[in-house]
Amino acid sequence: MSIPLIDFAKLTHETDAIRHQENQVLDKACREIGFFYLINTSIPNSLMNALMREAKRFFAQSQEAKNAIDIRNSVNHRGYGNIGEEQLDENGHADWKETFDMAMDFPADHPLASKYPKMYGPNQNPTDPTTVEVLQDYYVEVFSVAQKLMTAMAQALSLEDDFFTSGFTDHVSVLRMIHYPPRPTSNHDNGAGAHTDYGCVTLLLQDQIGGLQVKNRQNEWVDATPIENALVVNIGDLMQHWTNDEYVSTAHRVRASTTDVHRYSFPFFVEPDYETKVECVPSCATAEKPAKYEPILGGEWIQYRLDATYSYRDSE
Ligand SMILES: O=C(O)CCC(=O)C(=O)O
Ligand SMILES: [Fe+2]
Predict the structure, then answer these.
(1) Is the CB of 212 under 6 A from ligand 1?
(2) What is the pTM of this model?
(3) Contact status, residue 173 vs residue 266, Cβ threshold 8 Å
């Protein structure tokens, strides 16, 4: 099975019939593969290009400059992650990539930062103000797309429109920039190891290099070949829990760049408020298929998964 295409312009169309029809296609994609391309999003192409440009500038800085905002110095997991810091597949190699993570910025003395210091707090920003501005602008735009997407999912699942989005007031969604440099040896082809994402959905912007692969229901790795200006969207574990396994969180991986090729990608991990209670949505449980998972707080789940994949968080 290949990766379906969803038209965001249709999903948010003013004509009910067009919206409903696209909603059915979305619902099918979420149930059958958990991955789709999203085209015609409201994000300006110029902003996507600017993000790509800033990422190249950011990662091209000296190691010293990047280490000044090392993610290991941030309790709430913001900033720069060097190669080898993250290992997504516990049975493989560490990932051959460097990263930068940002999220909503809360002052260190904010009540939520005091209560959940590992999830809320300040960002560690790049020094260049243009980079920061572009990251913030993109964050706002991509979150707006995510909200509309979750509204469409709620409609597809016969829920109130705001069933999911109402859990995103003080959300912990993360925008990440990733740089996959050329791999050093031929036996280390792991850009990002096989994994599922932790949150509700992930909206990924990628360049034209390719390398992302998705495991379909037949257990075959399918290439998520880049489509210009389209986002690749996938369901995460929290949404799978929320929907009692109706929407599926699917394994994916990134093959590392070959010699001389640099790849850049920008996942936006859509994650609710720490205190949003995630429990089986009513339309996904029946007498034959009762709720499979205990209710959990969104933040508890994300924190548990982050602690498992980052070496520096092990000891905490
Ligand atoms: O870089 C990519 O294409 C995907 C990255 C990814 O799956 C992740 O960071 O969770
Ligand atoms: Fe992922």
Answers:
(1) yes
(2) 0.95
(3) no
Q: pLDDT value at position 314?
A: 45
Which atom of ligand 1 is nearest to 269's Cα?
A: 10
Atom of ligand 1 nearest to the CA of 253: 7
Which domains are present in the chain? 5-313 (2.60.120.330)
Do residues 245 and 207 lie in contact, with contact meaning Cβ atoms separated by under 8 Å? no
Which tokens is 154 given?
């709620």
Atom of ligand 1 nearest to the CA of 97: 1
Helix and strand element counts for the chain (H, E): 8, 14
Query: What would the two tokens of residue 294 be?
Result: 């205990």
Is the pLDDT confidence value at 313 over 60?
A: no
Q: What residue owns the CA closest to ligand 1's atom 1?
A: 265
Write down the ipTM of this complex: 0.99
| Mutational pocket test of ligand 1: of 71, 201, 202, 310, the residue with most ligand atoms within 8 Å of the beta carbon | 202
**What is the pLDDT at residue 49?**
98
Beta strands in 60-171 (DSSP E): 79-81, 98-102
pLDDT at 94 over 90: no
